[in-house]
Amino acid sequence: MAETVNSANSVNVETRVLDIVSLYPKDMNIYGDTGNVKTVEMRARLYGYEPRIHAYNVGDAWPEHVDLVLGGGGQDKGQAVISDDLFARADTIRALAADGVPMLLICGLYQLFGEYFETHEGERLPGINVLGVHTVGQDTRMIGNLVEQTEECGAIVGYENHSGQTIVHDDGTVAWGRVEAEGTGNNGSDLTEGARKYNVIGTYMHGSVLPKNPQLADYLIRCAAEHRYGSFEASSTAEQTAQLEKLNALAAAAFGVASSRPR
């Protein structure tokens, strides 16, 4: 339900809150993934919502309300640091996912939301089985700008940098996007990128990805609002609408530059 608050003029107005969890920002944020949180926060506010950002790190109290989860990438060491805590929260996270809470997991957390991640050295880190995927570290890294085609959001541009090869193996999980060139995407061979189940999206798209792809940020915000309030209702002022248009123009320019750069 929306919350009723008093404005400066003592007029009752409804504030539609969205509680957004930034998952392990201390250990899983090596490719600027905080930019995803900033983008969602800014755009949600411009649509008339009140975003509340909860930075959740190892050992923290879990927020009472969760409408959206954003998680970033990290090195193998970072994944090992957060693994035990992630498993302690696994039942809660799985329940939120099954209930339709949207989540965007980048690279390292994408891997840990699968069945397991086996490092290049052969150490197997179990995942929490939200997504039906598994990942195995390889000698060759896949690095560079990449454009994929997605069903929900059209063309998405990002920057991949990973040696793990991810395979989608569960009928309940589908590949999120398609790429055109071998040697890119989930594993370099089947032309898939990322995975999706429920409203949970896992992807290797760094960049950070949301500033260059506002349609994906808006998709997540819409899903979060629909989950909490039953619908997405923008209440932007003329000034806010103008700000959104400027942001979209900047994103389009950034998309064009990134998608045209050679790998």
UniProtKB/TrEMBL annotation:
The keyword Cell wall biogenesis/degradation applies. The active site is at C107, H206. PROSITE patterns: GATASE_COBBQ. Pathway: Cell wall biogenesis; peptidoglycan biosynthesis. Pfam families: GATase_3. Residues 19-213 form the CobB/CobQ-like glutamine amidotransferase domain. It comes from the Bacteria. One of its GO terms (molecular function) is carbon-nitrogen ligase activity on lipid II. Forms a heterodimer with MurT. It catalyses: beta-D-GlcNAc-(1->4)-Mur2Ac(oyl-L-Ala-gamma-D-Glu-L-Lys-D-Ala-D-Ala)-di-trans,octa-cis-undecaprenyl diphosphate + L-glutamine + ATP + H2O = beta-D-GlcNAc-(1->4)-Mur2Ac(oyl-L-Ala-D-isoglutaminyl-L-Lys-D-Ala-D-Ala)-di-trans,octa-cis-undecaprenyl diphosphate + L-glutamate + ADP + phosphate + H(+); L-glutamine + H2O = L-glutamate + NH4(+). Substrate binds at R141. InterPro entries: Class_I_gatase-like, CobQ_GATase1, GATase_3, Lipid_II_synth_GatD. This is Lipid II isoglutaminyl synthase (glutamine-hydrolyzing) subunit GatD. Belongs to the CobB/CobQ family. GatD subfamily. Keywords: Cell shape, Cell wall biogenesis/degradation, Glutamine amidotransferase, Hydrolase, Ligase, Peptidoglycan synthesis. Its EC number is 6.3.5.13, 3.5.1.2. GO terms for biological process: cell wall organization; cobalamin biosynthetic process; peptidoglycan biosynthetic process; regulation of cell shape. The lipid II isoglutaminyl synthase complex catalyzes the formation of alpha-D-isoglutamine in the cell wall lipid II stem peptide. The GatD subunit catalyzes the hydrolysis of glutamine to glutamate and ammonia. The resulting ammonia molecule is channeled to the active site of MurT.
